[in-house]
Each structure stands twice: as structure tokens, then as C-alpha cells.
Write a structure and sequence with these properties.
single chain, mainly alpha, two-stranded antiparallel ribbon, 4 helices
Length: 121
């Protein structure tokens, strides 16, 4: 749960910073990158829950990159005045993936990425 809270805070901040620094990532209103950031946080958390383990570290990291790129690019079309190119979405996803790389390492090393055995009834 701590990981989800971290993502909900960090991801919108990265999007806001990227929107202020990159010319191909523009949001008209401040709530737009926040909504996309929270969506990315939830999607990333679900991907980690489903995929992340010591054996699937790189698969999970690549899946985060691809899903982040697509979510940023596609969801930006649903906001009036938002303009994000595919290159812009890719650059932002790359920034997020670098952060996720270290988060994934921390989750695996701390044992938080270990899946518990399901008990069948």
C-alpha cells in the first residue's frame, strides 16, 4: 500500500514537471496531469501486483514503460486543450520508468514483491 501512495504522489509531480519543461507535453489545466498521474499510479500498482517478482524484473519494468507511454498518450486526447505528442509521452514514460526501476529493486529487495501462496478452499 505504501508503494501505491508513493506512486499517487510522485507520478503527477513528474507529469507536472515534464509539462513545464517539455514543449511537446502541454496541459491546459493543472488537474489534467494529476488525473493522468493517478491513473498511471493505479495501473502501475496493478501491473506490479500481477507481474513483479525477482524473475520478472525486466518484464515488469518494460511493461511499465509501454503502459505509461500509451496511457499518457491516449488519455491526453480526452482532455480539452491537452496536447501531448507520442515522443512527449515516450519521454515522460522514460522518466517514470527510471524511477520505477529503483522502486522495483526496492520492492524485490525488501520482500514486498513476493507473492503469497493462495489457499484454495
Amino acid at each position: 500500500m505504501l508503494n501505491l501512495i508513493q506512486k499517487i504522489i510522485i507520478t503527477p509531480i513528474v507529469l507536472l514537471i515534464a509539462a513545464s519543461m517539455l514543449t511537446n507535453v502541454n496541459y491546459l489545466y493543472a488537474y489534467q496531469p494529476v488525473v493522468i498521474g493517478v491513473t498511471l499510479a493505479v495501473a502501475g500498482h496493478l501491473l506490479e501486483w500481477a507481474l513483479l517478482s525477482r524473475n520478472t524484473f525486466w518484464l515488469s519494468t518494460i511493461a511499465d514503460f509501454v503502459s505509461s507511454t500509451l496511457i499518457i498518450f491516449i488519455l491526453s486526447y480526452f482532455f480539452a486543450g491537452a496536447e501531448v505528442t507520442f515522443l512527449g509521452a515516450t519521454v515522460v514514460a522514460l522518466f517514470l520508468t527510471v524511477i520505477e526501476f529503483f522502486v522495483h529493486m526496492w520492492l524485490i529487495r525488501s520482500g514486498r514483491a513476493v507473492k503469497e501462496a493462495k489457499l484454495g478452499r
